[in-house]
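Section 5.1 Outputs to date
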Amino acid sequence: MGVIGAVASDYRIAHALIVRLLGALVAGLGAFVLLLALVVGLLGLPSAVLGTGIVLAVLALVAGGVLLLRGVVIVRLDDLGYRVRLVRGAGVTRARWADVEDAVAATVAGERCLVLRLRDGSTTTIPVRLLAGNADDLARDLQAHLDQGHGYRRLT
């Protein structure tokens, strides 16, 4: 859970999604190498062209793997507001807490989501399966940031 008032809370890409993306990257690069081998063979190009293509494919795989395994931040919550990245159909991708009316759990297109409803009627939809960690922790952290952003204090 994030510490409010000191640092931002980052929610990274889910591990299952990383595996799927790496699989797609491997398949795409494999198809590239296969197509390149076919072109080299048909056009009688030097084998160094194929070798260079393989080296480039391996470098692309390593670079993609490093980026994904570093944990791409999907949702960032800080003292001023939130930012959502790389989520298709998220709606509003950043807003200040003062602009957020409330946060609710919802099912959108069969997916469990957190929906932030903004004062202007727009929304931000965050599918929880995209995020590593526990959806309940995200909801509690989001609510704490929202409460702080609105100036609410918890009774103890």
